[in-house]
Each structure stands twice: as C-alpha cells, then as structure tokens.
C-alpha cells in the first residue's frame, strides 16, 4: 500500500505547512483561491452572501442618487402627471434596492423600468 502523505486530509483540512514566508498574513488574503480553500464553509457562505447583498445595496444606492439628482423624489414632480422619472414606480431607496435586485437577476421589471428621460 502506498503511504504517501495527503495534501487534503479526509476531514477537509489541508496538510500544508507554511514556513519562512514573509508577510504571511497579507499573502494569505491576497491569494483568493488559497484563502477560500483554507477557510471554513460558514466563512465561505458568509462571504458569498455579503457579496450579493453588497452588490444590490451598491447599485441600489447608485440608482437612488441618479433618481435624486434627476428630481424624481420632489413633491411637485410626483404629483405632476406629465413628469417622466428616470425609473418608473420608484419612490425611495427600498424601490431602488428592489430595482437593483430585479435588474441583476433578470427577474423582470413589472412596473419598475428605466425610461428615456434619464441623463
């Protein structure tokens, strides 16, 4: 029987010893593949979830700023029937967040959709 040492043990841990590596902590984070390989499943799922929510919040914020600068949230524009907003059916950050989620997952917009009035 072959008695070679395993790189990945049966319990999922890696059998790699780091020696004489300068700035070991910085190199560990800079190499994403090794970081994910050495991290636990809970950390991996947490990073995956945070990246999705972070992306939705980031683009929701960008859509909110665009609509705010265009004047879509002003009372006189909301009551005017002829006013054309940048994104229809947007009335605050929650709607911008949902628009971001719908756009990134191509779920379908329903009543929220971009218009030709956006600069």
Mean pLDDT score? 83
Element order, helices and strands?
HHHHEHE
What are the segments in which pLDDT stays under 50 over at least 5 consecutive residues?
Answer: none
Number of strands: 2
Largest sheet: 2 strands, antiparallel
Envelope shape: elongated
Helix content: 40-55%
Strand content: under 5%
Radius of gyration: 24 Å
Task: Return the structural class.
Answer: mainly alpha
DSSP summary: helix tally: 5
> In what order do the strands lie side by side in the largest sheet?
1-2
Q: What's the end-to-end separation, in Å?
A: 71 Å
What's the helix and strand layout?
Blueprint: H1 24-30, H2 32-38, H3 41-70, H4 75-79, E1 87-88, H5 93-105, E2 113-114
Antiparallel strand pairs: 1-2
Helix pairs in contact: 3-5
Mind explaining what this structure looks like?
The structure is a single chain. The chain is mostly helical and 119 residues long. The protein has 5 helices and 2 strands; from the N terminus they run ααααβαβ. It has a two-stranded antiparallel sheet with strand order 1-2. α3 crosses α5 (93-105). The longest helix has 30 residues, at 41-70. The protein is elongated. It starts with 23 loop residues before the first helix and ends in a 5-residue tail after the last strand.
């Amino acid at each position: 029987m072959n008695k070679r040492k395993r790189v990945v043990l049966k319990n999922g841990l890696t059998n790699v010893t780091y020696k004489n590596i300068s700035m070991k902590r910085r190199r560990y984070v800079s190499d994403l593949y090794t970081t994910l390989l050495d991290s636990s499943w809970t950390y991996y799922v947490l990073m995956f979830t945070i990246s999705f929510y972070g992306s939705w919040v980031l683009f929701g914020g960008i859509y909110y700023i665009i609509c705010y600068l265009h004047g879509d949230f002003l009372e006189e524009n909301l009551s005017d029937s002829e006013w054309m907003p940048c994104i229809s059916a947007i009335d605050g950050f929650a709607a911008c967040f949902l628009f971001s989620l719908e756009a990134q997952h191509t779920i379908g917009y329903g009543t929220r959709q971009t218009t030709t009035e956006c600069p």
